[in-house]
Each structure stands twice: as C-alpha cells, then as structure tokens.
Design a protein that fits this description.
mainly alpha; about 400 residues
Length: about 400
C-alpha cells in the first residue's frame, strides 16, 4: 500500500475516533454541538482556523437541515474529502441512532407506551420545545414585521394542519421576507478564505440529486405501493425542508407519520422525549420512528433518508458559498423563512405536544419544575430527562 493511501487511512481513522467521541459526549442540542466542535476541531486540533469555522457555521445555518451535523460533515470534508465527510457523519450520528433504535425495541417488546415514565418523557418534550421556542423567537423575530410573519404562520398551520400547509407557509415567509428586507440586508461579510476540496462539478451533481430526489420521490410514492419508498420519501422531504434546527423537524415528522397511522401520538412523543436523553443530533429521532415502524432496518433507512439531503446540500453548496452569502435577495428571503419557522414551531408546541401531554394541574406543575431545571438552574438535559421519567412515574400513583 502506498504512503499516500496510508496517510488517507490514517486521516480517516483519526476523523472517526474524534467524531465518535463527540457523538458519545455531545449533549445539549445544536448550539452546544457547535461549541464542542469549536473546542475540538479549532482550538485543540487546529484542523481549521477561526474564520474558516465561522464561515462553515454560517453556511450550515443558511441551509435547511441539521446545522450541527452539516458542520461536522463539512469539517470532515475539509480534512479528508468526501470520505472524510461520511466518516465524520457516521461517528457523530451512530451512537444516538443505536440508542434510539434500542429504545424503540424496548417500547414495543414490553408494551410500555402508557407507563408513567413514558408520560414523564412526553412532559419533557413540552419543556424542551418551549425552551427552543423562546430562544429562537428572541433571535429570529426581533422586530414587528417578523413577529407578524410568525403569527400568520402560527394561525395558518393551526387551522390547516397538513404537511403541504407547512411547506406553503415556509415559501410564503420567504416571499414576504424578500419583499420587506431586500433593501435592508447588509453587504458587510468578508470573502470566504477557506478552500474546500470539492469541485464545482461535484457541487452541481449534488444539487441536481438533491432536487431530483425531492421532486421524484413523491411521484414514485404515488405510482407504487412499496412501503420503503413511502418511508424514504417522508423522511427525505422532512430533512429537506427544515429551517431553524432539529426541533423544527417535529411538526413535519408528526404530520407525516401520526395521521397516517404509522405510529401513535403516544409513541411519537415518548420517542421525542427519549431523544433528549441521548447525545448527538436531534434528527436521529427519525431512527426511533423508523424502528417503531419496521424494526432496526426501518431505523437505519430513516436515518439515511433524513440526513441524505443534508449531505447533498453541504457538498452542493460549499463550492458556491461566496456567491450565495453575498446575495442580499437570498438573505432577505431567509429572514422571512426563519420567522415563519418560529410560528410553525409554536403551532406544533400546542398540537400535538401540549394537547397530548398536559392533562391536569399536576402535569403542568411537573413541566414547570423541569423547565426551571433546564432554563434557570442550567442542569444538563439528561438530568432533566431522568427527572421527568421519575416524576411521570410518581404522578401515575396519584
């Protein structure tokens, strides 16, 4: 084996070890993940400089999909090419995927959907999403115009609860954002100084695949009755249309799988609560859903389908990031999209999360305690999850 191949294998092995350790230890959601990445990849290992990391984070926040996972993929790509990106993704993602597939198996094997601790996990979901909404609303709706966009998105998605409504609201938010902010977005960003080892040709191919799957999968789904194509379409579309972080995927997945009868509201919310207890990206919640529907094979299919668009987008846009980030029209539209996302998330907070979790004053009391633990006492999410499970068990005896 040549020295070059040895060096490539050594680099890939290093990426795998570092990303897997982060996959086992990165609790706290996407913002915390970016902090872990910065500490490990920029400060400790110096795989990239501060400016390059900031540019990569900006790109991933600009794109739909799981921002922290896309940053991890991008770092892997810059370190080891496309294989490095795949390796980084696998290391960071598989620990939580395996944990949630096991949880889904336990849930079905022992038929514990109505156990007290499961109800406690559903209340944890209330707390976590409420916290996410507060943070996102402060950042993404700082003025009256964007708060109005969020309000309209909330009202529309509450009154017409379909997946296509959510997609339409996102598009409408982008149009309104463009009309309002097209003259206000600044041009102060510096040119991108990091060189990515991806050709424009690969970028074009990746973007073509992204849009090709997005439009062709629904057609195939309607023409056939193959279940795995339907599953792949639902997860791929959810992963393609999420702006604003992992919590925003909740309403899309809920609309795709609960009304269709693939899983119950209780199963959905129990899994969402459990997803807070594991490290890594929240998008791995899809592994739980897939495993509930079709065992571990379904879990792996769901994981691949929901992250595949993120991978295609990061490979497709890295070569063109300079042009995208300087386009004030795109940036203006994104301001409206992000505001609409806040409204969609508030709608999902009410239904299904609140309506399926808070039934009595004691449920609300537990939610208040857990919220205080998470937001004001700054306790780790896994402590809040365990406390919720214990609290739900105690409530079941009253």
């Amino acid at each position: 084996m040549s020295k070059t191949n040895n060096n490539k294998l050594k680099t890939l092995w290093e990426i795998l070890l570092v990303s897997t350790r982060l996959g086992f230890t990165s609790f706290g959601g996407p913002v915390a993940h970016l902090g872990y990445f910065h500490e490990e990849y920029v400060r400790r290992r110096k795989w990239m400089d501060e400016k390059g990391y900031a540019d990569l984070v900006a790109l991933c926040q600009f794109l739909p999909g799981p921002a922290s996972s896309q940053v991890g993929i991008g770092i892997g790509v810059m370190r080891g090419g496309v294989l490095g990106g795949m390796t980084s993704f696998l290391g960071f993602t598989l620990p939580s995927v395996i944990a949630l597939i096991i949880f889904a198996s336990v849930l079905h094997t022992f038929n514990v959907e109505n156990a007290g601790w499961i109800n406690g996990l559903k209340i944890v979901a209330v707390v976590v999403v409420a916290h996410a909404i507060l943070g996102m609303a402060q950042k993404l709706t700082p003025d009256v115009q964007r708060r109005t966009i969020a309000l309209l998105a909330l009202v529309i998605t509450l009154l017409w609860q379909t997946t296509y409504t959510q997609i339409g609201v996102i598009l409408l938010g982008g149009i309104v954002g463009f009309l309002i902010y097209k003259q206000q977005t600044s041009q102060e960003d510096e040119p991108l100084i990091t060189h990515f080892p991806i050709s424009r040709r690969l970028g074009y191919i990746s973007l073509a695949l992204f849009f090709g799957f997005l439009f062709l999968l629904p057609v195939l789904r309607n023409l056939t009755s193959i279940e795995w194509i339907a599953l792949f379409d639902s997860f791929y579309r959810s992963g393609s249309l999420v702006f604003g972080g992992g919590h925003v995927v909740l309403p899309l997945l809920e609309q795709e799988f609960v009304p269709t009868g693939w899983l119950t509201e209780e199963e959905f919310l129990a899994g969402y609560g459990a997803a807070q207890a594991v490290p890594g990206p929240l998008f791995t919640f899809a592994a739980y859903i897939g495993a509930v529907i079709n065992g571990w094979q379904g879990g792996l299919l769901a994981t691949f389908a929901i992250f595949f668009p993120a991978f295609l987008l990061i490979l497709g846009t890295l070569p063109f990031w300079d042009e995208l980030r300087s386009n004030h029209r795109i940036r203006a539209a994104l301001l409206g999209v992000n505001a609409a996302v806040v409204g969609i998330l508030i709608s999902a907070f009410y239904d299904p999360i609140w309506t399926s979790s808070i039934f009595a004053p004691i449920d609300f009391a537990l939610a208040a305690v857990l919220f205080t633990m998470l937001v004001y006492w700054k306790l780790p999410p896994w402590v809040v999850v365990i406390s919720g499970a214990i609290g739900g068990t105690l409530i079941s005896y009253f």
